[in-house]
């Protein structure tokens, strides 16, 4: 495994993290604690130290799985990132809750679910600029940092070209940007990444496999059933993506290299990116994801 400094947080994170949206049930899979333990144990065995979750991945369900695991392991071995701002109702249904009082309640809920007394990275979760520009929210969060409940603040931008929230990061003491970035969507390279580099913000690249399109498993014409999140995507857009993936596999991926490994390492080539946070269904996928670090050039 390789590690990078997460911007001005000074945390050293594994370049491959573990995204945990799937634990909330919205991938059409229901996980058991034993399955989650196996995934996280495999991650630690391979040198991964970064877990990314959110309070709305199944109404603290993902956090609860992680918390149960952490309660039986060394908490300090992990950098735990979670998010705030939404209330989970049912699959794919959430309501915004970005008020300062609401966020304090969410923070306490996350700490309880995670069975910890501190969160390493607490992120504003894909909210509108109006909610972000609330001074009371950030003043309240700063007090929680001072109280030791939060080590660092971050922002998970909803639009991967949200320059407003990125540019305002230093002002509100947000030290990390989480953004959609992958070989099919390079938008952040234009404006967001240069701003992150100027401010020395850490960058977490989410959806690095483009919702699995860059896994190399699917050909043009693939159909996803109703339990799969990709079933909700526009069919024409899906067709175009899979045709582009086929071209990338043919023209860019070196012969003999697994496409998913290549796609994760591709994200990490950009100097702004600290880590990628792919999801995973089982320990074998964790192992495959972690192996992408071998394709990342040694630094420093």
UniProtKB/TrEMBL annotation:
NADP-dependent oxidoreductase domain ranges (all copies): 16-295
The entry's keywords: Oxidoreductase
An example molecular function term from Gene Ontology annotations: oxidoreductase activity
Transmembrane segments: none
Pfam family, one: Aldo_ket_red
Protein name: Aldo/keto reductase
Organism listed in the record: Paenibacillus faecis
């Amino acid at each position: 495994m390789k590690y990078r400094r997460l911007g001005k947080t000074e945390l050293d994170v594994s370049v491959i993290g573990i995204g945990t949206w799937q634990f909330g049930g919205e991938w059409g899979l229901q996980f058991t604690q034993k399955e989650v333990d196996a995934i996280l144990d495999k991650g630690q065995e391979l040198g991964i130290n970064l877990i990314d979750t959110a309070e709305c991945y199944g109404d603290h369900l993902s956090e609860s799985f992680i918390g149960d695991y952490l309660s039986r392991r060394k908490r300090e071995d992990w950098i735990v990132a979670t998010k705030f701002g939404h209330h989970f109702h049912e699959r794919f249904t959430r309501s915004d809750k970005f008020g300062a009082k609401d966020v304090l309640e969410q923070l306490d809920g996350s700490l309880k679910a995670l069975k910890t007394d501190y969160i390493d990275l607490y992120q504003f979760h894909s909210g509108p600029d109006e909610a972000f520009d609330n001074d009371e929210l950030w003043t309240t969060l700063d007090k929680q940092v001072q109280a030791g409940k939060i080590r660092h603040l971050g922002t998970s931008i909803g639009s991967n070209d949200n320059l407003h929230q990125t540019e305002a990061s230093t002002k509100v003491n947000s030290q990390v940007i989480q953004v959609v970035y992958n070989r099919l969507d390079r938008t952040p390279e234009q404006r967001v990444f240069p701003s992150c580099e100027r401010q020395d913000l850490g960058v977490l690249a989410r959806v690095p496999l483009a919702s699995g399109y860059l896994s190399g498993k699917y050909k043009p014409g693939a159909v996803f059933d109703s339990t799969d999140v990709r079933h909700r995507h526009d069919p024409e857009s899906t067709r175009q993506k899979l045709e582009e993936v086929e071209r990338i596999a043919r023209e860019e991926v070196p012969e003999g290299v697994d496409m998913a490994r290549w796609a994760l390492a591709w994200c990490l080539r950009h100097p702004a990116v600290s880590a990628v946070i792919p999801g995973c269904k089982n320990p074998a996928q964790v192992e495959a994801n972690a192996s992408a670090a071998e394709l990342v050039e040694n630094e420093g």
